[in-house]
Write a structure and sequence with these properties.
Low-confidence stretches: 158-164
Number of helices: 13
Distance between the termini: 23 Å
Order of helices and strands: HHHHHHHHHHHHH
Helix content: over 70%
Radius of gyration: 19 Å
Mean pLDDT: 86
Length: 307
């Protein structure tokens, strides 16, 4: 890819911000959309190409997406970081903030190790349109199955973590939600966090996988989404930070302007997406996203196989 146009950068950036947080797979869309558009987009935006500037670009956009999450959940992250520092200093895991901090630590370790070991292999072998379409279809089925299994669960057997608190200010609501999440065991947090490993497959959503895992472990939709976003923040930030040197080197030569434009688009769209989703999941489910992924993935697969 010799150049990345401003139009491509802004469209991809906006897509990244939305699809990274919506349970529809940002990597799957990053692979499929250029292939379906065709022409220059298919040539320029090839995530599976060796030393791909496009890959460096879209992973670099993760920094902007993570920044949006940090801005939206800034009160939570102050509590979490303070809790972690207190836990290390006093060698204890006592308060809700301390417990939540360690839940995020142990929940991040599995995907961190797996990403370092498997990302290149999965991207080069599976980061192509047809596998991405197949995995996106599977993502829809996973979301739907998760919802159906959750519906069958007896409400009386759900963990106290799923219980809702009385309405209050945004600050009180955030603290109450964090307190609910902190009641999870470290083992449960690790299992939910490990679901992020599935997102290494293009077409499988990080937030979708962790939300389904959370729902099956007794979380409400609202708390499952919140924990998913908190879990994703350090992972997305680290993935983006690892690619920053690529963007400042030869792979980023001549496209610094589009990179900035795409990053701004990603930050704005991610902030709007997380703001929408935190409200959406207070009363609604994953089913519409399941239908979208299954239909779009299957239609894309049929079109790609036919052409």
């Amino acid at each position: 890819m010799s150049q990345l146009s401003y139009l491509e950068a802004i469209v991809v950036g906006a897509f990244q911000g939305v699809t990274e947080l919506f349970p529809v797979s940002s990597l799957g869309h990053s692979v499929l959309v250029p292939a379906l558009v065709g022409g220059r987009w298919a040539r320029d935006l090839d995530v599976s190409a060796p030393e791909s500037p496009y890959l460096a670009f879209i992973v670099g956009l993760h920094v902007a997406t993570a920044a949006a999450l940090l801005v939206f959940f800034w009160r939570d992250w102050i509590r979490i970081i303070t809790g972690f520092a207190s836990s290390v200093r006093h060698r204890r895991i006592g308060s809700p903030a301390e417990r939540l901090a360690w839940l995020l630590v142990v929940g991040t370790i599995p995907v961190g190790i797996s990403g370092l070991l498997l990302d290149h292999l999965f991207r080069t072998t599976l980061g192509r349109p047809i596998p991405a379409a197949a995995f996106l279809t599977a993502n829809g089925l996973v979301l739907y199955l998760g919802e159906q299994l959750r519906k069958r669960a007896d409400a009386a057997t759900l963990s106290p973590v799923a219980a809702a608190d009385a309405p209050g200010s945004a600050r009180d609501a955030g603290a109450a939600a964090d307190a609910r999440l902190s009641r999870m065991s470290l083992g449960r947090g690790t299992l939910i966090g490990a679901a992020q490993i599935l997102a290494l497959l293009p077409g499988i959503s990080r937030s979708g996988a962790t939300m389904v895992a959370g729902l099956l472990r007794g979380l409400s939709h609202e708390d499952a989404a919140r924990f998913s976003f908190l879990l994703a923040t350090p992972v997305i930030l680290a993935a983006g930070a690892l690619k920053i040197p690529d963007l400042t080197g030869p792979l980023g030569a001549g496209i610094h302007g589009p990179i900035i434009a795409g990053s701004i688009a990603s930050l704005v769209s991610a902030y709007l997406a997380v703001r929408f989703l935190t409200r959406y999941f207070e009363t609604r489910t994953l089913t519409p996203f399941a239908i979208y992924c299954a239909v779009f993935g299957a239609a894309s697969l049929i079109w790609l196989l036919a052409h």
